[in-house]
Amino acid sequence: MTMVRVGEKLAELCRKEGLTISVKYVDLWVSDYFLPTTDLVVEMFPYYKNLSIPVVDGKPFLNPLLEDGLYVSLIETIKELLSKKI
Amino acid sequence: MNTAAEISIYLDHAATTPVDPQVVEVIQTASISFSSNPSSLHSSGREAARAADQARTQIASAIGASSPGEIVFTASGSEADNLALIGSARANQQRGRHLITSCIEHHAVLHTCHHLESVGYEVTYLPVDEYGLVSPEKLSEAIRPDTILVSIMHSNNEIGTIQPIPELSRIAHDHGVLFHSDAVQSVGQIPVNIVDLGVDLLSVSAHKFYGPKGIGALYVSDGVDVLPLVYGGGQEAGRRAGTENVPGIMGMAKALNLSLERLPKESDRLRNLRDHLLSRLCSEFTDSKLNGHPTLRLPNNLNLSFKDIEAEALLLLLNQQGIEASMGSACNSESIEPSHVIRALGVPPGWERGALRLSLGKSTTEEDINLAAEKIIQIVRNLQHQV
Question: Of A75, B45, B98, B104, which sits 20 to 30 A from B156 (CA to CA)?
Answer without folding.
Answer: B98
